[in-house]
Amino acid sequence: MIDDTRSDDAFVERIAEPLRAPERADATFEARAMSAVHAAAWADGADNRYTDRSWWLRPRVLRVSPLASLAVAAGFVGLVLAGSAALGSLDRGAIDGQVGTRRSIAATRDTVHIVRFVFLDSRARRVALVGAFNQWEKGATVLTTGGTNGVWTVDVALAPGRHEYAFIVTDERGERWVADPLSQKVMDDFGTESSVLAVGVSASS
Amino acid sequence: MDAYGFLVRRYQDAFFRFATRMLANRDDADDALQSAFVRAYRKLGECRDPSRFGAWLYQIVINECRTFSHRRARRERRIIRDEAQLERAAHDPVLEAEGELGEIQSALDRLAAEHREAFVLKHVEELSYEEMSALTGVGVSALKMRVKRACDRLRRMLDSSRSVS
């Protein structure tokens, strides 16, 4: 029995010793692992936006008859001006961008489409809307928030057609590009995802 | 995030050996370990005692290796349908290591996963049965039985391969 035990121990030691030889991950392991961790952290941030941290609403499109368009345009200008005053810390380009929007409303002949973009995120410090309609200029259309409930809104006049857009959200983690999860997505050549909003037409057209 | 990079650097080699012995394949070990570090990062809030981070991470690595091992077994069952092929495949060394290490690793890879895990933790990682029990959630008696069976089977496999050669 004693001999058997010694024999077992010797056998185990004989096979275990080579298995104890060090095995090293390759030199790129740390970088690859951290890249995967960063990607996961980013994806989790997106998940959180769906759940407890914040939530989203679809952009709302209001259609206004031609006769009413002037009145609506006047109201919208008031809104834009009020917004400009409230956003005094923005650079001059941002305010100019809003004035440009006012001119496009005045030029509308048939139907005015005023789209209210609503973004809810209690941790956001700044939310901007970018799209082809503002040349993807991140300072051009900045959402405003009325208080501490994290509701950010902006009304934008859009021509009928298919509009690609995304939000630029700034919070304690920095600045992030965020596509609207509730809208149809498009991917550009560099893999960046944006959302598609159809105003007066189908999104796929 | 930079601090986490430090932890990856600190533990990667220690756990890479365990993953390689468990999966008998460096690529699978690399994938499993990377997946474990991502999972650990996501669950950092559940690590109640930072001073025991290494043991906590060890549990995650063990679970990840189990998952990879099961996944690989399923994949091989799907691919290899013919029993004779299965028999031949079971005797192919998975690890490309030459010589004695390759032979032992190949035998280790043919053990049942729970026997292999118990053997590696006990005799390669040199943990006590109590430490193994804390990491795996398996009782000490069951672990001793698994190690014993692993040793018996390894002895049979290695002795027979030597008598053949």
Order of helices and strands of chain B: HHHHHHHH
- Quickly count the helices of chain B: 8
Would you tell me the overall average pLDDT of chain A? 65
| Beta strands of chain A, count | 11
Q: Percent range for helical residues of chain B? A: over 70%
Evaluate the radius of gyration of chain A.
27 Å
Order of helices and strands of chain A: HHEEHHEEEEEEEEE
The level of helicity of chain A is 25-40%
Counted beta strands of chain B: 0
End-to-end separation of chain B in angstroms reads 53 Å
Report on this structure.
The complex is a heterodimer of chains A (205) and B (165). With 205 residues, chain A is α+β, with helices and mostly antiparallel strands. Chain A has four helices and eleven strands, in the order ααββααβββββββββ. In chain A, strands 4, 5, 8, 9, 10 and 11 form a six-stranded antiparallel sheet that branches. In chain A, strands 1, 2, 3, 6 and 7 form a five-stranded antiparallel sheet that branches. Chain A is elongated and about 90 Å long. Chain A starts with a helix and ends in a 6-residue tail after the last strand. In chain B, helix 1 (2-23) packs across helix 3 and helix 2 (26-42) packs across helix 3 (53-79). The termini of chain B are far apart. Residues 88-96 of chain B have low confidence and may be disordered. The interface between A and B is medium-sized, with 25 and 35 residues.
